[in-house]
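Filed under: proteins

Residues; backbone shape codes:
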Amino acid sequence: AMALCLKQVFNKDKTFRPRKKFEPGTQRFELYKKAQASLKSGLDLKAVVQLPPGESINDWIAVHVVDFFNRINLIYGTMSEYCTERSCPIMSGGLKYEYRWQDDSKYKKPTKLSAPQYMCMLMDWIEMLINNEDIFPTRIGVPFPKQFQQVCTKILTRLFRVFVHVYIHHFDSIINMGAEAHVNTCYKHFYYFIREFSLVDHRELEPLVRMPQGWGG
């Protein structure tokens, strides 16, 4: 089951199809295009993450949660051959940080998993949430639920752990693959976004306070 699960999440030939697309013609699609355009324009990433005037904060957060999920899924997908049961028997960020998996179905208590198992559970769990119309409504006029930002905080906190694991345990692979600039840009964008809207507890950010050399700030 594990292999099948990983196969669904990551295509072995490294082509990746985002799991969630924004429907053209919707307000969220327009917002996504706006966010991508400012990202490509080479603007300072701290400016790129700011809420555009007149836009809803929940729409802005929803667009970014889905986009970060797609991009971090792709980053881990390119790393997944180096992240195995053998190389990473525990989902960790160095010796000091260990992440256990918990959800409302199979793992009701925090459970030790290998990194690839944790990643698999994580990606499936996020995909289920972002495809749930009660949590991420896509129809115009349908309001976001009251707990929307809490759910996003949980998603983004767990996605941050993917960066922690990839940077601390697979940084040499990132460099060897020539993916350093790409991963760093994605990380910075993610980091500035979560800081802008205070979406992840600062204690969760500690493992990457001293970033690898070559990260520009």
